[in-house]
Amino acid sequence: MFNYLALTYGFLAADLAFAEPIKKYVVGVENIEYLPYYDGSGTNKLDYYGYSRELLEMFADKQGIKLEFYSLPIPRLYKEFIEHHHVDFKYPDNPNWQVGYKQALNTAINYSEPSLVTHTGIASLKQNIALKDCKSLAKVRGFTLQGLNELTTKPALKVVETDNVIEMIYLLYKERIDCIYISHDVLEYNLGAFFDTTVPVYFQHHLPVDEQAFLLSTINYPKLVEKFNAFLKNNQQKINALKLKHKIIIE
Predict the structure, then answer these.
(1) What CA–CA distance (Å, rounded) separates 101 from 215?
(2) Which of 5, 16, 23, 241 measures 20 to 30 Å from 211, CA to CA?
(3) What is the pLDDT of residues 190-215, one digit of tens each?
(4) In whole angstroms, what is the distance from residue 130 CA to residue 151 CA?
(5) Is 112 exposed, middle or buried (CB count within 10 Å of its CB: 0-12, 13-18, 19+)?
(6) Which domain of life is it from (predicted)?
(7) Helix H segments across the chain?
(8) Is 117-210 in the same CATH topology as 9-116+213-245?
(9) CB distance 186 to 37 below 8 Å
(10) What is d(CA 128, CA 178) in angstroms, rounded to the nearest whole number?
(11) Are 228 and 59 in contact (CB under 8 A)?
């Protein structure tokens, strides 16, 4: 019996020795608070969290891989991804973001299908405003203004960049700017979580609202992006449950 057990343990040890290690990939993420979608700001010493992390880790578990999240400011994140190749994937990404920069580097980037579609537009302290009423506009630093050509082509428009969403909403409440560029989900989440006031902020649904798709992008691992597409298609029920958990509007 002793020899049999010793032989069995020997085989197990050999199997473990030759077992392939779990593959690890680095996902570059934005170091801002943009809840409920994600928070990579490091506030209160918390790691990257929110809907995006849970979605990506759900995918990683099904693939038997490990994802490490690397939070950086948006402009630097693109450099680490495209120029230096220090991150394997970027999330979220979109072909319409940082177009000039991407075209200048002429790098082939592979994009997934949308994992989420956000509704991003103008919010203000006043109801039913016109675009001309936005003489000053705040946006998160590094964000691309989309669908607002009528507004952004005006030379008199003052654009203020902030490091986070809370600062942007604060500037609006202090009436230092007229409008903010923000997702409807993000506006509602942050008002409820961080602002103890009865003064409403109105998302201007009648003004141009851009549908911003969140995609997973990579330069070197297109096959894994294909697997992510299959994951999105085959797990819609679980993904919708995750969206409901984070109070994200389901299309």
Answers:
(1) 18
(2) 241
(3) 999 999 989 999 999 999 998 989 99
(4) 10
(5) buried
(6) Bacteria
(7) 2-18, 51-63, 74-78, 99-105, 149-152, 165-173, 184-194, 222-234, 236-245
(8) yes
(9) yes
(10) 13
(11) yes
CB 53 within 8 A of CB 69: yes
Residue carrying structure tokens 């082939």: 108
Q: Which of 52, 62, 69 is nearest to 215 (CA)?
A: 52
Q: Which helix (H) or strand (E) holds 124?
A: strand 116-124
Are 151 and 250 in contact, with CB atoms under 8 Å apart?
A: no
Count CB neighbours of 249 within 10 A: 14
Per-residue pLDDT of 99-142, as tens digits, reads: 888 888 888 999 999 999 999 999 999 999 999 999 999 999 88
Topology adopted by domain 9-116+213-245: D-Maltodextrin-Binding Protein; domain 2 (3.40.190)
Q: For residue 59, give the nearest of 234, 219, 217 by alpha carbon.
A: 234
CB 43 within 8 A of CB 63: no
Does position 3 have pLDDT exceeding 70, yes or no?
no
| Domain locations in the chain as residue ranges | 9-116+213-245, 117-210
pTM of the model: 0.86
**Ramachandran class of 187: left when φ > 0, alpha when ψ lies in -120 to 50, beta otherwise:** alpha
Report the DSSP pairing between strands 136-140 and 179-183.
Answer: parallel
